[in-house]
Amino acid sequence: MALRVYRDLLRQAGYLPHPYLQAFVKGKARDYFRRHRNSPKPAKQIENAKKELRRLQKVNNGSQFAFMRLLRQAFGRIGRMKWELLKPHFATVPERDPIIPKVESSRPPTYTPTLLALVSSSISKSTDRVIPTKDILNPLPARADPASDEARLLGPLSLRRQKNMHRRFFLEQTRRVYPPLEVLRSPSSTEASTPIPQTGLETLSPIAMLHSLSLPAAPISRPSRSDDTDRPLEEPEYAVISAARKMRVHGRSKRWLRRRYRELLGQIPKIVVEDSTTTGEQERKSTKQKKREDRTPEAKETTITDSSRKVSVQWSSKLALNLSYTPPLRTITHKELAWIQKATELTASNPAASRRKK
């Protein structure tokens, strides 16, 4: 029974529209069956495997909800992989003093610059609420201040409650954060002066892969048999469709598949780390460039600056479904260019005829 379910999982994984998704599901199924090989309750484990099989069947039958759930799992938006991607951004050594004296477990959570930038940005969170940095570091009510009116009327806030509030707020915000797949270093900064956390996916270039999958394939002009000059001036890269691009979800169009990848790109932030010693002229240039690149009012970056580096959260791609996008135009052919030039020359030589047509 278990072997049949395992084979069905591998078969359904082979129908997925991208090699990365196929490898992710196959590896997940392989690890699951190896982990529960000697389980004392095999019936329960087989039932869970059947549930996963039904989800894969829904994906291959064209269910949008099931397909987006699989994409979020495969790229670390939900599930165990999300916390593995967030782990490099957590502080390994506590830097804040304990709230309760001589009790080490009462230390408030420490926010690294990258984690603080992710929590304080609306780009990298599942909610649009933007929380100021001062409220993140100190989420306590006014009663926590002994000199406040609330503390005088209701009494001081318990130190244990303050510790629990810090912990709950930290867990709540980290659950809402989308971890970045890549952490980039600005060209002006060096590796020694600006250390960055590594996610382990830098060699795979997942953002570039999703960007290419989200591009619409432009129509390719075929050369005419009678005229060898009827060729495009240059063949764009996005017109070359790989074998992975030709794979589709049953009952769904290629446009639907591209929009799902663009929807996923809207949940993947990008972190850029640079030296905080940037000159004023460079900052003004970068600000102007960002204003030109922003497509919508929602595409606002969040920047956190400390003593050694500056961390900014940006959109991972301009193809994210949250942003407006103008697809590239088709490349003009030599024959079409000749017709346009001829029409321009005729209009310039006989302006009266062009006025009569109008």
TrEMBL record:
<feature type="region of interest" description="Disordered">
    <location>
        <begin position="275"/>
        <end position="309"/>
    </location>
</feature>
<dbReference type="InterPro" id="IPR046896">
    <property type="entry name" value="Cup1-like_N"/>
</dbReference>
<feature type="compositionally biased region" description="Basic and acidic residues">
    <location>
        <begin position="281"/>
        <end position="309"/>
    </location>
</feature>
<feature type="domain" description="LYR motif-containing protein Cup1-like N-terminal">
    <location>
        <begin position="5"/>
        <end position="86"/>
    </location>
</feature>
<protein>
    <recommendedName>
        <fullName>LYR motif-containing protein Cup1-like N-terminal domain-containing protein</fullName>
    </recommendedName>
</protein>
<dbReference type="Pfam" id="PF20263">
    <property type="entry name" value="LYRM2-like"/>
</dbReference>
